[in-house]
Amino acid sequence: MSDTAVAPSKEKTSFRGNGGVRGWFGRQPTWVRAIVTVVALVLAILLPYAGDVPLIGPQIVTQGIDWPSSLFNMSYYVLLALGLNVVVGYAGLLDLGYVGFFAIGAYGTALLTSRDSLLYAHSGWSWLAAAPVALAITMAAGLILGWPTLRLRGDYLAIVTLGFAEIIRIVATSTPNFLRGDRGFTNIPHPPGQGSDGKPIFGVTDATPYFWLGLGVIVVVILGVRNLDRSRVGRSWLAIREDEEAAEIMGVRTTRFKLWAFAIGAFIGGLGGVLFAGEQGFINSQTFVLQFSILVLAGVVMGGSGNMAGAILGGALISYIPDRLRGISDPFFHTDLYEYRFAIFGVVIIVIMVLRPQGLIPSRRRAMELKDREKEVAPQ
Amino acid sequence: MAIIGLIAGAAACNKDTSSSSDTASGSNCGYKLAYFGALTGSAANLGVNIEQGFELAINQYNKTKGSDCITVAKFDSQGAAEVAPGVARNLVADKKILGIVGPPFSGESEAADPIFEAAGIPTITPSATRVSLSANGWKTFHRAVANDDAQGPAAAAYIKDNLKATKVFIADDQSAYGAGLADVVKSKLGALVVASDKTEGDGKQTDFSALVQKVTSSGATALFYGGYYTNAGVIRKQLTSAGWKGTLLGGDGMKDPGLSKASGVAAAVGTVVTCPCSPPEAAGGTFVNDYKAQWNVDAGTYSDVAFDAANILLQGIDAGNTTPEKLNTYLSTINYKGIANTYKFTSTGELDPTLIKVWAFKFDQSGDAKSDVEIKTS
Amino acid sequence: MDFSGLINDFGPLTVTGLAQGAIIALFALGYTLVYGVLRLINFAHSEVFLLGTYGCLIAWGWFGLDQNSKAPNFGAMLAYMALGLVVAIVASGLTALAVELVAYRPLRRRNAPPLAFLITAIGASLAISETVGVLTHRNQRGVPPIIQARTVITIGDTHITNLQILIVVLALVMMFVLDRFINGSRLGRGIRAVSQNPDSAALMGVNKSRVISLVFLLGGLMAGIAAVMYDLKIGVTKYDAGFLLGIDAFTAAVLGGIGNLRGALLGGLLLGVLQNYAAGLFGSQWLHAAAFVLLVLILLFRPTGLLGESLGRARA
């Protein structure tokens, strides 16, 4: 039954020779690419004002939730998707408990800054001071999770990471004094900065600055991950993902690079958590549920695992689709579609994956690799 | 993404039509009151109870005015703290909103109330009972029920004086509400407590056989569960099928017919819940029937408080307080006799302590909790 | 830490844990069967179970039974049990087939990467459970008292009820039947063949699509039985019941060695009992955390579970 017809020859050639937007982009000289990138970035920065664009704007912005807030939500989902993409897409380690790192980043920030924290007498830091420490803790957690689980393959790793996230949630719920359970941490400080009028830039009523902050962090993360992916680390991940034993034999230190993937993934997830805590000002254990991890994973794969553009698109969509459905009635029964958001979303996921099994923006490198090992991969 | 595009297109104008207030006429009209809280999601039941009580009050007000004077605005937070800020910012962007009933839960209150505070819109929560909420210095915060500190001593007094139980088992679901309540009850009962346990929260655990075993073997004749009716119904059912004949007690979070729907009426009969509220039928008036007529279901927990909260805000608007600031100032002056209670707020937005009444309600054959006695704590 | 509590209640905790574990084991079979053949986690299996829990409730509802009904007499009980089982099995079985048809088959045709299957299964799971959630207003639904729990055996302080015996015995019987079916029948041979080497099996004339459907169906049947037992033991069901117990069941399958039928049974029973012990020792809030810690520890020493992976391979 193996369906060998699926082997389009175009994948043999370099992607620059291909048609489509990406092929075109690849063929352009550097200055054109720079301009296109800058324009894209400017458009992203202007996104909070999308609602003012005639005709198209109102179709894009969310109805039942403040549009800049929705954009901020997208920004941390995109961060999570980028981080998970390193673990799942690059290194090929299936992580079902990625929300754990998000939680550690958020809790690290809260522990160091909130007046509810046991440590407050010693710390009581600002958000900016707490962020690097929280990120260091998250990275350490990535290593701690990574180290004992490196022997595990595929689905065993999946259930252990899932368990890891659940343990974090349960510990957060069940330690009423340390992580404060459902009571949570209040008064987590916002990021610093004052506008010219003396008001803080990062207030509570306008989420736009938070979105811009998130966007800035995303750009930095993209640049960092892009460099890593093109370095020895990235090539080692590729080797590990495709054939761990062969990689080991060829001298790739698989353990070390898998740990790298975990730590970097954790770091990016932690960034999302730190931003989230800074914007919310309040966190409790209810947020860090398992469904969250699964959603982010769905975003990464839906967008195109192993490909940053895909992860960004997927991450944005998993946040945007449910938010966009908020406050909208269906034309027939006039019930709020938001109640159906996950049911609709589930169907959308199936449709996308069936139509584009490699994701919306497939990874080119993966596509080329997959061709070689079709039989092995396709569970016929 | 064609599907999403279609939906977006169909609904683009949807919201604007509902918010038009051209039909409003008369003095002090054309404003909105908002409900902020869960309408969908797993916490929706309590939210819908409150929203319906709130909307009923406004419908009745509009009827007496003879026009669509005040518009209902609904904001669905799902009761989730991570969702609440975005929805709250959406709310404060609507400048016609003068006051808010909600948020119903304490967690979302922590996340959303700072935004309402910054916008200066007064809120009256009918059910967020976390004690620390009033300690944030929020000027717009008002609580129309007693906080968690009031219920615990009353529940303990009921167990001691009315139930006369000598062996009590304490358990809670680790929610801020449930754990707080159970801790107070535990400390007030002192030596009467034979053992205790904790469970996971609603929707996280369904097999309570270990808890059931602990309760049974402890010899307790009463179990106080700090938590909500969802878990409590399952626990009651599993206790009954394990042959435990003692009394289950709890706070207002368990005061919902959903408890007996899960456990079956026969098992639920005799379950006692305390509530810092008066029985709706005691208030007289036609609320119980009106609610049923409008929504075709019985009024649930806090429907009456939400009804009162909405009426307080409506009364303020009627008196000419047509900006959020004026309405907020007005709230500090009221002394309003509603159907569930008499309302007077302290400077921190708490209900005046002298007005707090705690009642015990008991599940009977109808499957709902009916008023039993008023508990005197002193 | 409450060691005296654990020791005092050791017997009862073991018995109730075994009953819960038997349900988990039946549920876990679905994960293991699909994994054995496709090497994929069927995330939507939790919803296969979920529709079973609702299926039998709806069937009993046809006869006016709800949570407030009186327990039926013995003859009626047998009839209701049979009806409930049949309807639940049909509901779960059909759901499993539908999931395969919608979320798996189109991807197999397109040679999709394994992660894609995981995600469509997640999509199917979301779509089903959320639709149930909307239709039931996310309320719990109480179960009629078809079997009145009654102590039949008493050993010291340990009371064993008829329901507990029924659950454990039924699980063991089903496991035995399934084991015989896989290892002894012609269709079972096909399953083993595909799980050992899909391509060779296809060359030998095994209809792979049919085998895969069969595996989904078998998993659905077991989940249907587990669903009825769950209803009777827990007493309520809800739109997220499948997701919640699904994590336990998946854990159990991995614990025993995913792809291994006997491993699923062992893993399920072990998990059920140990969760109860952990609840006795540390408090009920830690029972899931304890399960995961145990899982990590076991996988550290036995990276492919207690009994190792095998549906058709080594053991068959």
What does this molecule look like?
The complex is a heterotrimer of chains A (380), B (378) and C (316). Chain A has a domain at 66-290. Residues 1-13 and 375-380 of chain A have low confidence and may be disordered. Chain A has 380 residues and is an all-alpha fold. Chain A starts with 19 loop residues before the first helix and ends with a helix. Chain A is built from 16 helices and no strands. Chain A has helices at 20-27, 30-45, 56-60, 67-90, 99-113, 127-149, 154-174, 208-229, 232-242, 244-249, 254-280, 290-304, 308-324, 341-355, 364-372, 374-377. The longest helix of chain A has 27 residues, at 254-280. Chain B has 378 residues and is α/β, with parallel strands linked by helices. Chain B folds into two domains: 23-146 and 282-345, Response regulator (Rossmann fold), CATH 3.40.50; 149-275 and 358-375, Rossmann fold. Helices cover 41% and strands 17% of the residues of chain B. In chain B, the strands form three sheets. A seven-stranded mixed sheet of chain B has the order 7-6-8-9-10-13-14. In chain B, strand 13 and strand 14 (369-375) form a beta hairpin. In chain B, helix 3 packs parallel to helix 13, helix 4 (84-92) runs parallel beside helix 5 and helix 6 packs across helix 7. Chain B is elongated. The termini of chain B are far apart. With 316 residues, chain C is mainly alpha-helical. Chain C has helices spanning 3-8, 10-38, 45-62, 74-109, 114-135, 162-184, 186-196, 198-203, 208-234, 241-256, 261-282, 287-301; strands spanning 141-142, 151-155, 158-161, 236-237. In chain C, strand 2 and strand 3 (158-161) form a beta hairpin. The longest helix of chain C is centred in the N-terminal third of the chain and has 36 residues, at 74-109. Chain C is globular, with a radius of gyration of 19 Å. Chains in contact: A-B, A-C, B-C. At the A-C interface, helix 7, helix 12, helix 14 and helix 16 of A face helix 4, helix 5, helix 8, helix 10 and helix 12 of C. Chain C: One of its GO terms (molecular function) is L-leucine transmembrane transporter activity. Chain C: It is a multi-pass membrane protein. Chain C: It comes from Paractinoplanes tereljensis.
